[in-house]
């Protein structure tokens, strides 16, 4: 039994207070996303939004959030994580207030962009702050609680979203973030300690601009492919811009003394496969609440509140599995936890794929969602711990920003791809009815066509989850491998 010194005990108490701060950040962002996933039809009906505007209410946030994560990871490395983290809370809170005052749909999209910038400051630094605060032997427990709070957000979000949309109006979907954001800002300012700043180095401005532009072009093209087709001018322009920008990014990063994206840090076997597995898990998982909520509203005719209650098995599964996986992480390697979670997530999506039918009993759908949730919670805890243990401490901010960016690319594509596959089954003239959740009132034939879309969507997500499980299994590092620049205490081992 290892003796606990007063200093170690004090560090652990501080670490758990830090965990409460970062967990509040994750809850705030998670609730903001999951409430809108369920309440989107209410917002669409209020603004009489078409399919393009409807999709970009969601995608604008995800696109900007994804493309700015690496930038804010680098800024936090240079200016201080505490300062950037708290600034993120402030910006997110103000943007949420203004979003509820939106006079039209495009002003709402603009406020979602500001929310995304605040969320980037929070997400790029939350995992790093926890990694710095916890002793290495307790990191898996802290990470399990941190990841588990995402399920709290996803648990509260759908119910709150449906209830608020039906009872208080769509504006409160955004305004509910304001008091929560103020509480998180105050608690964070009180708890988080200032961290030593690295010596002032020039920010890679050119690299940031080129990376942002390349990601924006790629995500725009990929998210619009399903609904507009490969020959669409928007898709072709986005793909062409991406192909031109990629070599420019590589050239700029090779010449920069402080590259925003140091590719040498991502060349190891563990980081390469673990990040790809994380991408696949995010792609397979992230649109599930949105897709299932649309299923219950558009195909079964449920109201937003009932649909919100119906998707709860997914976040319940994440919430139960994440802390359990954190405890298991003290006995099992993060690698084993990650692989087991990826396999469970695949099994849950397989259940949904095989039972996509309006006549399917709810308990079957609930079981598939619960298993998928348990798998995702387990995977996220194991995968995050595995990656963060392998990172060189001097580049935690930028590399974690890259890690979260990879996941967010999966989230963006999950939403864009799922909506494209789903709505392609009913034709362009009925897509607006799907987003507004009024399709079930039109005709049984249209609903039958939509069910084909649900089945194809689940099949795509299942295939991606299966690929993620294979990649997670390949993310076993060699015991002697050390990532470039890593100190001896952060050897890249699977333990």
TrEMBL record:
Any one Gene Ontology cellular component term annotated for this protein: plasma membrane
Residue ranges occupied by any Major facilitator superfamily (MFS) profile domain in the UniProt entry: 18-480
Alphabetically ordered keywords of this record: Cell membrane, Membrane, Transmembrane, Transmembrane helix, Transport
InterPro entries: MFS (IPR011701), MFS_dom (IPR020846), MFS_trans_sf (IPR036259)
Pfam families: MFS_1
Annotated protein name in UniProt: Drug resistance transporter, EmrB/QacA subfamily
Membrane-spanning segments: 21-43, 55-72, 84-107, 113-131, 143-164, 170-191, 203-222, 234-252, 273-298, 304-328, 335-356, 362-381, 402-422, 457-475
Keyword Zinc-finger: no
Topological type in the membrane: Multi-pass membrane protein
Record-linked CDD domains: MFS_MMR_MDR_like
């Amino acid at each position: 039994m290892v003796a606990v010194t007063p200093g170690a005990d004090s560090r652990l108490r501080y670490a758990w207070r830090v965990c409460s701060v970062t967990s509040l950040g994750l809850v705030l962002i998670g609730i903001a996303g999951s409430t809108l996933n369920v309440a989107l039809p209410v917002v669409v009906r209020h603004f009489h939004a078409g399919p393009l505007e409807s999709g970009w209410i969601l995608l604008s946030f995800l696109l900007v959030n994804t493309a700015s994560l690496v930038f804010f990871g680098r800024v936090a490395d240079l200016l201080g994580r505490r300062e950037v983290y708290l600034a993120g809370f402030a910006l997110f809170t103000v943007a949420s207030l203004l979003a509820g005052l939106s006079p039209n749909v495009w002003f709402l999209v603009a406020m979602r962009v500001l929310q995304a910038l605040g969320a980037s400051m929070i997400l790029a630094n939350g995992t790093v702050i926890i990694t710095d605060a916890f002793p290495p032997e307790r990191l898996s427990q802290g990470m399990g609680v941190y990841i588990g709070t995402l399920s709290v957000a996803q648990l509260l979000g759908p119910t709150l979203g449906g209830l608020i949309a039906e009872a208080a109006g769509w504006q409160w979907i955004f305004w509910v973030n304001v008091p929560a954001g103020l509480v998180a800002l105050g608690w964070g300012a009180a708890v988080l300690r200032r961290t030593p700043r690295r010596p002032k180095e020039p920010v890679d401005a050119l690299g940031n601009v080129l990376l942002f532009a390349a990601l924006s072009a790629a995500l725009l093209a990929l998210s619009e492919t399903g609904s507009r087709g490969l020959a669409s001018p928007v898709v072709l322009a986005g793909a062409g811009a991406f192909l031109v920008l990629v070599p420019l990014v590589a050239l700029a990063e090779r010449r920069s003394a402080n590259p925003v994206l140091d590719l040498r840090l991502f060349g190891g076997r563990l980081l390469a496969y673990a990040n790809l597995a994380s991408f696949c898990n995010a792609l397979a998982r992230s649109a599930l609440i949105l897709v299932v909520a649309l299923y219950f509203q558009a195909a079964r005719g449920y109201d937003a509140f009932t649909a919100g209650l119906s998707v709860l098995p997914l976040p319940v599964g994440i919430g139960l599995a994440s802390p359990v996986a954190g405890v298991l992480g003290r006995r099992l390697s993060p690698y084993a936890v990650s692989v087991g979670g990826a396999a469970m997530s695949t099994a849950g999506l397989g259940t949904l794929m095989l039972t996509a039918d309006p006549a399917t009993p709810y308990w079957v759908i609930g079981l598939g969602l619960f298993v998928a949730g348990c798998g995702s919670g387990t995977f996220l805890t194991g995968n995050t711990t595995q990656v963060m243990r392998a990172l060189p401490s001097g580049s935690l901010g930028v590399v974690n920003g890259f890690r979260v960016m990879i996941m967010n690319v999966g989230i963006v594509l999950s939403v864009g791809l799922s909506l494209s596959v789903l709505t392609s089954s009913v034709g362009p003239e009925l897509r607006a009815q799907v987003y507004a959740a009024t399709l079930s009132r039109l005709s049984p034939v249209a609903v039958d066509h939509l069910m084909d879309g649900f089945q194809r969507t689940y099949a795509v997500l299942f295939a991606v989850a299966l690929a993620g499980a294979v990649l997670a299994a390949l993310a076993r590092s060699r015991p002697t491998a050390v990532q470039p620049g890593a100190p001896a205490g952060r050897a890249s081992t699977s333990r």
